[in-house]
């Protein structure tokens, strides 16, 4: 390439690339309104062991190597959320010498007092607080 064409190419190439890709880059960063990515919730129900709900084991069940990354998303969110709540419950126990006495105290003294927001789970799964075990569980949606 002749030397006198190198400078204009170095200047014009980034300008052309930047101008040509700006619109598509903007569209790429827009989320679908149905997406759960980045959404949080404080909706934690009260667990009833007699209700016959299926409790998630929070294990990754990946059988297809191509989609294993997306199938791991939900169980990883569950594990992180459970760990977060377990830590908050242990701090409450250390401070008060007891676990929350019921669901209402759990919601008031742990969730609301600490301003905890958990990530929305895929597949309609829901968070519930198990009073007997002082733990967060994840159940399948209705």
Describe the structure.
By secondary structure, the chain is an alpha+beta fold. The protein folds into two domains: 30 residues; 105 residues, no CATH class. The protein is built from three helices and five strands. The protein has a three-stranded mixed beta sheet with strand order 2-4-5. A hairpin with a 4-residue loop joins strand 4 and strand 5. The termini are far apart. 11% of the residues are buried.
Overall body shape: elongated
Domain count: the total is 2
Number of continuous helical runs: 3
* Range of strand content: 5-15%
Q: Mean pLDDT, rounded to whole units?
A: 83
Give the helices and strands as they follow along the chain: HEEHHEEE
Record keyword descriptors for this entry.
5 strands, 142 residues, alpha+beta, elongated, single chain, 2 domains
């Amino acid at each position: 390439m002749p030397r006198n064409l190198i400078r204009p190419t170095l200047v014009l190439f980034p300008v052309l690339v930047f101008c040509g890709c700006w619109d598509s880059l903007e569209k790429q960063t827009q989320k679908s309104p149905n997406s759960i990515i980045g959404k949080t919730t404080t909706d934690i129900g009260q667990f009833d062991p007699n209700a016959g709900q299926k409790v998630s084991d929070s294990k990754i069940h990946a059988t297809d190597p191509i989609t294993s990354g997306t199938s791991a998303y939900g169980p990883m969110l569950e594990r992180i959320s459970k760990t977060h709540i377990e830590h908050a419950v242990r701090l409450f126990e250390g401070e008060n010498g007891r676990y929350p006495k019921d669901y209402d105290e759990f919601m008031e003294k742990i969730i609301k007092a600490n301003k905890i927001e958990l990530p929305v789970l895929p597949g309609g799964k829901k968070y519930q607080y198990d009073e007997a075990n002082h733990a967060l569980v994840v159940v399948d949606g209705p």
